């Protein structure tokens, strides 16, 4: 089975969008000004990436 | 991290498609001398009855020159009854005492007494099929020929084949299949690794060794100094060491043996903990991140196996995060709903579409999540501890005997607590909210609901289900005859087990339960089997009566042939692929109904008095 052009674009798009999401997630969504507990948990959550697979 | 493992899998699937890799096993060639094979059955303290089935099956394996196949029992407890079993079946016995290194110690000791260029490893409970050698040896012959050709033409050398792994397959339903009433719908959970992931690894010529039913080049194992003794998962480490020593490894996709998988909670979880700790430890031993001997793709494969064990901690964090917000207003993600929708949603759903598109039918994501949730409470700590170098006390071999005890019931506690808290979170979070408030909170509710469904499944799995049958039933259609009055009547068997079989007659006659019957089975390519038995039941299956018989075998020879008939071949009663028409929601419904019925019966029994 060969990969169609359409699929190739979809795959690349999927990966690109995930990367954009990750950048946004790391850069803009971490609640820095919160309790230490919440911050630690927030960082853990980012570390395991809030987008499950 | 989770994205990373997904990317790695996608990468290999695409690669496999592009290169059109489908491992073709050629036929045995007569152009080369047939290599001698030692088939080592490794035993520690398992039942002799269980070992007998494996030894018996090994003596039935096809090989053009049977003198070149040497079946060996390696017993590290020096048990007289095992020695007697070896004598009975005319196979070699290698006993030992004072084994310090578990399975590896046993195998290394046996290898000192053996010298064939190829050897196979079988666990006591892995019953080989007749085709095991014809599905593996030709790959070694082919490799040898390719190497000779390349050398003759002064081309760059072809790597030597180190081992061939055949897939793990199990003849009983696993804990997920059995406890969720879904033996006919979901394939065995381990199939995903064995028949999907490892075949992909094999397409890169770096398949992993999974502990049993593999054929090794003796030279490759000697080159890495035998089986490793510094880990709990010698299999995983040995396979990688062989690859690093410059040998290739392949994985075939057709099951050539069948084993038992534990179905009691304690057994399943203990086995998984051992694997988790073992793989983490082996990854440290192998220095998978920095080892210069690893090729790029091989490194990816190993990192993927390593990260897999971290997915359980990830699952725990995922489950806790929305609960924290819903119950305690602890916000761990600082985001506006609409921005989240714009940035997160498209990527998320597209990625899942791609994963679905590239994965095959053995396992879908939903089931993967349920299984992950199931193991998470018990695996996340061992993984962390092992990473920190805190080792567990000595591990025992997974006990495959099904013994259900009270302790088994206690294993349900973490699932129940998580389930309860998630339920409370869902209710509390949505109670008294209206309109756009619910919409804004929908992301949290979505995750809570997902986890609630997964946890409900875990509760059902942990609740278990009573086991009625002592031995596993296999669907086997074999012709034979039944002695009626004064002549033989043709029959066909439907399914067989160690205790009994069912059959139908070409010309149905009047038989009554309690009658003693005499049968003769004539399986293809095997001597006939004579047996007698008491008729237990006559049932109508689509107007043609089906007779169920309790089997009695006259002597050892017939017993051996009968055992062979049962265990030679995949158990077709279990599915190999996911039934995509049955969604997890149907499953959930079935489970609720089945259990409600049970409770209703119990309740009506109670109220009768």
UniProtKB/TrEMBL annotation, chain A:
Keyword Membrane part of the UniProt annotation: yes
Name the UniProt record assigns to this protein: AI-2E family transporter
Keyword Transmembrane carried by entry: yes
Lineage: Bacteria, Bacillati, Bacillota, Bacilli, Lactobacillales
Keywords tagged on the record: Membrane, Transmembrane, Transmembrane helix
Bilayer-spanning residue ranges: 9-24, 30-48
Automatic annotation (TrEMBL), chain B:
Annotated InterPro entries: Glyco_trans_2-like, Glycosyltr_2/OpgH_subfam, Nucleotide-diphossugar_trans, PilZ_domain
Any Pfam family hit: PilZ
Membrane topology, record value: Multi-pass membrane protein
Chief place of localization: membrane
Transmembrane regions listed in the UniProt entry: 307-328, 335-355, 375-392, 412-432, 438-463
Domain Glycosyltransferase 2-like, residue spans: 39-144, 160-345
This protein's name: Glycosyltransferase family 2 protein
Statement: the UniProt record of this protein carries the keyword Transmembrane: yes
Subcellular location, record wording: Membrane
The keyword Glycoprotein belongs to this UniProt entry's keyword annotation: no
Keywords: Glycosyltransferase, Membrane, Transferase, Transmembrane, Transmembrane helix
Residue ranges of every copy of the PilZ domain listed in the record: 469-567
Source superkingdom: Bacteria
């Amino acid at each position: 089975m060969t990969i169609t052009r359409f699929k190739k674009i979809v795959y690349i798009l999927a990966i690109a969008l995930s990367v954009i999401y990750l950048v946004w997630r790391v850069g803009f969504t971490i609640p820095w000004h919160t309790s230490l507990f919440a911050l630690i948990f927030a960082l853990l959550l980012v570390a395991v990436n809030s987008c499950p697979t | 991290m989770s994205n990373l493992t997904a990317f790695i899998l996608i990468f290999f699937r695409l690669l496999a498609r592009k290169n059109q890799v489908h491992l073709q096993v050629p036929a045995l060639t007569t152009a080369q001398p047939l290599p001698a094979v030692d088939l080592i059955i490794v035993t520690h303290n398992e039942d002799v009855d269980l070992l007998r089935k494996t030894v018996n099956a090994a003596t039935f394996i096809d090989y053009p020159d049977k003198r070149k196949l040497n079946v060996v029992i390696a017993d590290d407890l020096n048990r007289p009854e095992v020695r007697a079993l070896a004598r009975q079946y005319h196979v070699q016995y290698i006993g030992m005492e004072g084994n310090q290194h578990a399975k590896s110690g046993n195998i290394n000791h046996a290898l000192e007494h053996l010298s064939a260029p190829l050897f196979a490893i079988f666990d006591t409970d892995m019953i080989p099929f007749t085709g095991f050698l014809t599905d593996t040896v030709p790959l070694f012959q082919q490799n040898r020929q390719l190497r000779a050709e390349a050398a003759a033409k002064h081309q760059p050398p072809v790597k030597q084949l180190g081992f061939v792994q055949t897939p793990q397959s199990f003849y009983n339903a696993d804990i997920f299949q059995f406890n969720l009433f879904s033996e006919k719908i979901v394939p065995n959970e381990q199939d995903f690794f064995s028949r999907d992931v490892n075949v992909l690894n094999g397409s890169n010529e770096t398949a992993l060794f999974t502990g049993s039913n593999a054929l090794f080049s003796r030279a490759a194992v000697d080159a890495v100094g035998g089986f490793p003794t510094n880990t709990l998962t010698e299999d995983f480490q040995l396979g990688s060491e062989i690859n690093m020593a410059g040998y290739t490894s392949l994985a075939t996709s057709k099951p050539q043996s069948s084993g038992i998988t534990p179905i009691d909670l304690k057994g399943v979880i203990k086995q998984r903990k051992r694997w988790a700790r073992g793989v983490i430890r082996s990854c440290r031993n192998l220095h998978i991140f920095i080892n210069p001997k690893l090729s790029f793709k091989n490194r990816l494969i190993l990192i993927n196996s390593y990260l897999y064990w971290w997915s359980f901690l990830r699952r725990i964090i995922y489950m806790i995060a929305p609960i924290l917000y819903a119950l305690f207003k602890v916000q761990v993600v600082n985001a506006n709903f609409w921005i989240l929708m714009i940035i997160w949603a498209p990527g998320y759903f597209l990625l899942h579409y791609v994963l679905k598109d590239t994965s095959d039918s053995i396992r879908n994501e939903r089931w993967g999540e349920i299984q992950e949730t199931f193991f998470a409470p018990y695996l996340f700590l061992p993984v962390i501890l092992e990473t920190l170098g805190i080792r567990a006390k000595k591990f025992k071999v997974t006990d495959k005997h099904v013994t259900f005890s009270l302790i088994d019931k206690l294993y349900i506690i973490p699932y129940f607590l998580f389930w309860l808290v998630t339920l409370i979170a869902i209710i509390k979070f949505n109670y008294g909210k209206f309109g756009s408030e619910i919409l804004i909170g929908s992301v949290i509710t979505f995750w809570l609901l997902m986890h609630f469904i997964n946890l409900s499944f875990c509760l059902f799995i942990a609740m278990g289900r009573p086991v009625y049958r002592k031995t596993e039933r296999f669907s086997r259609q074999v012709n034979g005859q039944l002695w009626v009055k004064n002549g033989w009547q043709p029959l066909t068997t439907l399914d067989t087990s160690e205790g009994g079989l069912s059959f139908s007659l070409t010309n149905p006659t009047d038989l009554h339960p309690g009658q003693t019957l005499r049968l003769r089975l004539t399986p293809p390519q095997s001597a006939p089997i004579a047996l007698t038995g008491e008729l237990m039941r006559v049932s109508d299956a689509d107007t043609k009566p089906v007779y169920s018989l309790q089997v009695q075998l006259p002597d050892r020879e017939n017993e051996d042939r009968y055992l062979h008939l049962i265990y030679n071949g995949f158990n077709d009663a279990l599915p190999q692929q996911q039934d995509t028409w049955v969604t997890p929601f149907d499953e959930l419904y079935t489970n609720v109904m089945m259990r409600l019925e049970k409770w209703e019966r119990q309740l009506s029994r109670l109220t009768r008095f």
